[in-house]
Amino acid sequence: MHKLRRISGDPTSYLTRIIGSKNGPRGGRLSAMLGRISMRYAVLNGAYTRTGIGGIKVSTWNDGQKEDLLHCYESTAAELVNLKNSIINRQIEEIRDICPYCGIGGHGQFDHYMPKAKFPEFSVHSYNLVPCCDKCNGLKGEAWLQTNGARTFINFYIDSLPAAPMLDVQVQWVVKNGKRVPKVSFHLARPTGFRTESFALIESHFRKLNLLDRYKNQAHTEFLALRDAALGRKAKTVETLRKFLENYLEQRAKTLGPLNWRIALYSKLMEHRPFLQDCL
Ligand SMILES: [Zn+2]
């Protein structure tokens, strides 16, 4: 998982262009609502700078207004495509295709961090759009707040993340079909110095998106990828191979970041001498 960059420019300008591109009665109705929507945008923009978005209350819109507001996102207007492209292109190139919520899949969808069913006025607000994978988007649903009012999911535009790894990986080796393969499990561990309250949000995020199990289910594929990279080196000794893999991991960590689950898994696999011996 990794932080997201917000696109530059006032989110209202994208809204104005999207509404301006609409013809007919819907365009007229949305233009008439623009002042009210802009006031809501000001509330959200302010909350984002204070990281206090959990306290934003829903606003009352009638069914017709809701439909018009949601249509801003559901249409295929060029201005909406432009907004989505701007969000994606603003991200770091090497990781822009990775879902920030899980770090596993690519992004094929946009999640509305604040659910658009509850906050239709933010359906095309650039801060509220998170490029993510369909699995995360489906699991996240509309449960953005917990019963105690705390947020459920990490907001990668604003929330602080640990600087140090927070995934503890356990590996046991078993032999299948004559080959040594790992049985892997992942656990969350709060890095020293990272605030307990902030970590509670991360724990909730992991729980709701079922991330530990999803990493476990992907672990064998990643093990094979690392083994293939190691075998391709055709190293003669464990020490030579270890040095190669250390450099490889260092490069991958620069690209994926220290919090990525693949980095945690690779680091753990490399600690096991029998794994290195199998790759000679
Ligand atoms: Zn995802």
From TrEMBL:
It comes from the Bacteria. This is HNH endonuclease. Gene3D superfamilies: 1.10.30.50.
